[in-house]
Amino acid sequence: MKKYNLPVILLNGIVLLPQNILKLEFDAKNSDNNVIDMALLFHDNYILVVSEYNQKRMPKIGVLSKIESHLVLPNGNMRVDIKGLRRVNIVEFLNLNKVKEPLESIVSEITSEKIENEQLIINKLVKEIKIYIKNISYISNDIINMIEKETNLDKFTDIVVPNLFNNKKKMLDYLNTVDPIKRSEMLLKDIYIEKEMFQIERNLDMKIKKEMDDTQKEFLLREKIRMLKEELGEYSSKDNELEKLKKQIENFSCPPKIKERLYFEIKRYESSSIASPEINVIRDYIEWLLNLPWNIYTEDNNDLNNVKEKLDKSHYGLEEVKERIIEYLAVKQISKNDASPIICLVGPPGVGKTSLAVSIAKSLNKNFVKISLNGIKDESEILGHRKTYVGASPGRIISSLKKAKSSNPLLLIDEIDKMSYDYRSNPTNSLLSILDSKQNKYFSDNYIEEEFDLSHVLFVLTANYIEDIPEPLKDRLEIINISGYTEFEKLDIANKYLLPKIINEKGLNNKFINISDNVILKIIRNYTKEAGVRELQRQLDKIIRKIITQLVINNIKINKINITEKVLEKYLGKEKYKFNIKTKSQVGVVNGLAYTIYGGDTLPIEVNYFKGKGNLLLTGSLGEVMKESASIALSYLKSNYKIYNIDYEKLINNDIHIHVPEGAIKKDGPSAGIALTLAILSAITQIKIPNTIALTGEITLRGHVLAIGGLKEKTIGALRSGIKTIILPYENLKDLEELPHEVKENIKFITVKDFKEIYQVIKNVER
Ligand code: ADP
What we know:
Elements: E1 3-10, E2 21-26, H1 32-42, E3 46-50, E4 61-72, E5 78-94, E6 104-109, H2 118-135, H3 142-148, H4 153-164, H5 168-176, H6 180-231, H7 238-251, H8 256-271, H9 278-291, H10 304-314, H11 319-334, E7 342-346, H12 353-363, E8 368-372, H13 379-383, H14 396-404, E9 410-414, H15 427-435, E10 443-444, E11 451-452, E12 458-463, H16 471-475, E13 477-481, H17 487-505, E14 513-515, H18 517-526, H19 534-553, E15 561-563, H20 565-572, E16 589-596, E17 599-611, E18 616-619, H21 624-639, H22 648-652, E19 654-659, H23 673-685, E20 693-695, E21 698-699, E22 705-706, H24 711-720, E23 725-729, H25 741-746, E24 748-752, H26 755-764
Parallel strand pairs: 1-3, 7-12, 7-13, 8-9, 9-12, 14-15, 16-20, 18-19, 20-23, 23-24
Antiparallel strand pairs: 1-6, 2-5, 3-4, 4-5, 5-6, 10-11, 16-17, 17-19, 21-22
Helix pairs in contact: 2-6, 4-6, 7-8, 8-9, 10-11, 10-12, 17-18, 17-19, 21-23
The protein binds adenosine-5'-diphosphate (ADP).
Adenosine-5'-diphosphate binds near residues 315, 316, 351 and 537.
């Protein structure tokens, strides 16, 4: 390989890529002048430019460059334009430690290889760059003219990069990447990243701007209204207002500190000019203080028998839940221990978490207020904005106390598992300090500024998924699980609670509606799909509403109306869901069990195989954990093929496709492990698995079967789908006791520790 020697320019802080021009001005006294002279005199204007010089890590790549012009300025300095030509390998440096000698190098050429589809790659890059530039205003369009006619990918990337990015580290990466195809890939990736970043920044900007605009707009509009009202003579004059407020403050019952603050603020109000924007801020603040229930307490009903009675009246079943609530209240009554945990009701939507909290409040004679944390990501939504913000207001806790009209209400904090987090703040910490009875005595909202004692508030929290509750919060909670209802429990709820409630609300006679259990069951099975009874309540309400409307329109007067299966379609439309309709047992199809927002359900798993190379193909919106389970399942069967009489050739000469239907629903979690394994085994060995069997359990690479969660929900779903046998982990044996009796009576449970046991069960099953 040809080697030659060149004088060297070391750059500091800038990077020269080939195809680009570097403009330098040398100090007259600088020895680099010598390097330039040497290049001009002995090297035909060629020179090596090295962009990063580090004694410890000698650079390997430099840019062979040519001095295109040079000019000696009147002050003796020299100005040179150097154009980068191509990358070369640096073999070694000469005169490295000799201060007086100009630095020189020995370099060798880099051979370039022909690039396949070069033009196609260039076209793709041009397309992406055009889109990118269109979005980003600070990059000039000139670059398009420069690159559009370029047909050499090597040159292309070097022209583009300095125009798009000016980060030294990135430029060095491009300089040191010799292969133009690799550089193109880097370029595409960087463009995508920059585009994403830009989009994120723009969304943030827009959001902030909108928030500012909204609050500012509201403020200005309020000012205008105020001035118009004043013009119209409708607005009480400041003096009147002042008198009114002063009187109110005098008679207001609150801690002395708050009184002092009120007097202080009213003085500020008095001395502010009516034209100043500040005056409204002060008045709003005074009104907030006057509207908080500082010294107002409702008297608690401490008769827990009575509380239990009332809970029974409002809610069907939930015996354990009610018992735990009563115990909790009992302990709270006698214990002086401030650190008692906070109740958190966890369960799917519609199972009665909110309504139970309302009932607890009612039965304890407490006022009820609710705040939702769904989507909250900023602490100030909970703790309030400082008054210096335009349009500032207190956070949700203080706002809810204003609504509660007492200092000891039941405050339901809904959906604590749905808080979001971002880099700016962490609402969990604020929530923790609010719930902590040692700290919440001195709770201070950013807007209110004065402490409000929250220690008499009875907090109840709710969440859908226990796993999504932030860990530090979970530690402080007394978790009470409310799982979904079986069909028969729902039927009971409908008959004893929902229908009487709906009929009563509509002012009808109890006997007016006649609806048989079968009809209600049909609504449950074919018109709702849920763990709770919210949808059921809606459907029942809808039927009754429609019937009443018809009677009124047609002026019909009757004392009783029968709702039969026949009229269901008329009122509720076509059946929406079909349960218990099962396909025949098939090879390669196995029922798993899932726990979704609708409660438990069967999760059919389908497996096919076809000529291939032992690859695994997965479809049906599977999450990462479930994908891993599928890989574990396949690996386990591969390494234990003898035990299961599997033809090994079949495993390695075929691709295996696993599909979990209902692709629109995202599925994840490890609990489908054994079902996945059995489905693959069934497909490969052609053993048919009866469709009345369902499996749930995690599998390890060694075939051990590990415990799963949500068993109650899953078994209720399984019962609904007509499953007769459930294979589950031995570790879950202890949970069987808590299952509803319909489930225990109708489903056979087989617990296993190892997958081999499942194989035995399947082999012995009657077909
Ligand atoms: P969640 O807060 O769990 O989403 P809700 O409390 O809003 O559920 O309940 C939805 C509806 O179902 C309410 O009208 C409630 O009265 C009714 N409901 C739920 N569970 C029961 C139950 N066990 N007994 C009687 N009604 C119930």
